[in-house]
Amino acid sequence: MQLLWEAVPTAGTFDTRETPFACQCGQAFTRKDLLSRHIRLSHDQRTDAPSADEEDHREPGGLHTGETAVNDLDLLFDPELFTQDMLPPSVFEFDADCPFTDDQTHLQPPGSNDFPRFSSRLPDLGDAERARNSDVDHSGAFADLTGILPWSFSEPAYEGFCLEVESYSAVLPGNWQVPSRNALSRNLESYFRCFQENLPFLHSATFSVAKTDIELLLAAAALGALNRFEASCSCCLYSMAKAIFAEKAHRQDLELSTGLLTRRNHPMLERRDGLGKIQTLILLIIYASWTGEGALPDALSMGGQLSMLVRQHQFSESDVPTDVDGRLMDAAAKEQAWCEWVSSEERRRTLLAAFVLLSLHNIAYDTPPQLFNHEICVFLPSCMEPWKATDAAHWHLSNPPVQRLFRQALQSLFDGVVFPLSSFADYVLIHGLLQQISLANRNAMGKSIQPDAVKAFETALHTWQSSWELTHESSLDPLSEKGPLGLNATALLRLAYIRLSSNSAPCRALLSRDISNLVLEEAHTERSPRVDRAILHAAHALSIPYRAFAEQPRMCLIA
After folding, report:
1. Which residue of 126, 134, 372, 490 has the fewest C-beta atoms within 10 A of its own C-beta?
2. 169 backbone dihedrals φ, ψ, rounded to 5°
């Protein structure tokens, strides 16, 4: 755009069509540099170009018609551009009922002829016309995607959302404002496309904005806005979600105290049986935990509420997952089997996400463990392929493997049994190992952990690493298509070795942000082979973000 703007003549010259710089061939130009370019390109140095002095003293040429002027100008400037839109008209042919982007077109790389070489960002007019015709021809298929994309709002769904939000206006903050339909969809898209990969517990293929609690939508939109660097918008959405969540909890407590709450006539319990409350609280705690010191007390206080809700929801599973042979089932049976699997998988992922989040609080802020390993009686999450399947047919093709119980898999690590799992399962298991190391350090009362216990932990960590290497989804690339959970899990592995080897208590100074106190507390650490190993792990851990920034600075800044 800067090149185009510099190529535009001044206002006076453009209005009068004056062309004072003329060539020997009879063509005249508005600027001297255009004349030089014309001589270099058109005459190809076959004729003697006039000297600069001759050009400066040449009499101005006469006015040319609009058609001649168009042919005179170079490739960087065309007066016809001022009569066109800077983007193809198809970009502005937006149906409010449709989602912002089409998945199919969004994921495919642009064609080689989308933009001409050495040109501005203006697409070729022929391509723009073809794109416009393509949009018209496929408008029906594009509209049908509103039932697939989880962030798409139909007009009735958005109207219902606004009415429900306004019904809580008495408890909303003073500067509250219902987000526009476009802003809400845009921020939800940012959450599902980017943020959800770090802790995937919402099933996007079956997610529906019309059937989801408004506080959950607002909390997810707040994280999406934060990912888009819209800090003020995300803060407002978070405040609204927290206020509505607290008011709903207060109303339910009143109904419970008066004995009016029954499973038969209360619509909230029919809607996912309280699982949405846990999911909303997870999103609120994530936002409050890492956005700044001001919201951190809210995150720590909501952590206790989350652990209570998880226990009320029963951190266990009664049904054992079984293999399903889709070849022996009809379409209806396949659909039913897929829906049942999605319901169970989303539930266990939500409960394990709560466990992971509270474990991160224990790691970062030295809070006591609020959910213990022995309380977890659910199966580990499946791989991403069946989880991301968009329908029953794709789910059956993915062939989801038999899953393992969390406690059995954790014990297998201490037994030295190596087995491949999903990246999410590896992530959960390393949190379980970190909790046991933390409890062992607390029980040691400032002394070193017993050598036998250290050896057992080293065996478990080595087995976990071997299992991680066998996992198809594992990757150390922060930009891997397999997701960031594999890389995040290795960071926790290094932290586990550091805390096991250095005998250092969790850093309480993180809560005060006072690094000097942390340095003074760790100044008397005695040198030993285990301390050397902890230092090496710390150095390797620090090298990961450094190398990522050095190799992909633009992507790191975006992340």
Report:
1. 126
2. -60, -25
